[in-house]
Amino acid sequence: MNFSYSKAAATGGAVALILLTSSACSTGDANDAKENQTDTSQSPETARRSDSRDLTLPLDAYLLTTPEMQTISRARVKLITQCLEKFNVDYAGEPEGESGLTENERRYGLADRELAKRSGYHVPALERTAPQKLPSTTQKLLTGEVRTYLGEPVPSRGCLGQAQRELRELEMYPALEEAQRINAEGYIRSQDDPAVVAVTKKWSECMSGAGFKYPDPMSAINDKKFRTPKASKHEKDVALADATCKESTNVIGVWSSTESSHQQILIRKSLKTLKEGQRVKQRTLSIAKSVLSE
């Protein structure tokens, strides 16, 4: 299974709706339009970065990071397990977010040469995880499709709903919508930034020299030919050339620096909303940590 961040992913679902109505500059405010432009031509030399595994961006503090997502997911599984035990039903649910990837690791495509050699664009951890088919009774108790079981009342929306209420999880996601919108908008703006356009062109020329024709890194990792159960030799060759060209042209360094600048502009405009979302997130995390410590 492949995993990447793309313009299509960035504009998916509710984020797309918000983005379509919010991304344009106000026609009556020239100052806002000027602020939205990031002049990378006058920036100091961008630091070189060959790996994106430990990459952090300004908006990360306001989003769910991979470790935070795992903490909440593990707490949810523990609460669901405890709920189902009351009905003498075993539950072997797996926590989410166990891909082994960090939140920004593939934001600009694959950058790990060793992983490219072994697995191409595929994510080994995801290939090992087969979707679990739950027994019918477990599924009904999980989602609340039945109101009683063995004479005992089933929680509203099932054991899953009860766990989410205890974690106050359903209050958290709406509070993070502004951060998610900025996450998408900043990424899309960075794609069109002159600095990223220029480094992408260099990357494409490097790939062409290796015998592969792709206009940008995301078109390589999202190539439909690579949507296979296992990586082929051709996929591994393309992935290795991709990561090598990223390193030689400093795609990760330039793109992450550029996107950081765009994010900082957007963060300043929505700081109050972002901080409230951050507060709500921390509340859910505190509850989750408490659940796991019991």
Structure characterization notes:
Strand 1 and strand 2 form a beta hairpin. This protein has one domain. It is built from 15 helices and two strands. A two-stranded antiparallel ribbon has the order 1-2. The protein is globular and about 70 Å long. The protein has 294 residues and is mainly alpha-helical.
Helix and strand arrangement:
Layout: H1 7-10, H2 13-22, H3 30-35, H4 66-85, H5 113-119, H6 124-128, H7 136-143, E1 148-149, E2 152-153, H8 158-167, H9 169-175, H10 177-192, H11 194-209, H12 217-221, H13 233-249, H14 251-269, H15 271-293
Antiparallel strand pairs: 1-2
Helix pairs in contact: 2-10, 4-8, 4-15, 5-13, 7-8, 9-15, 10-14, 11-13, 11-14
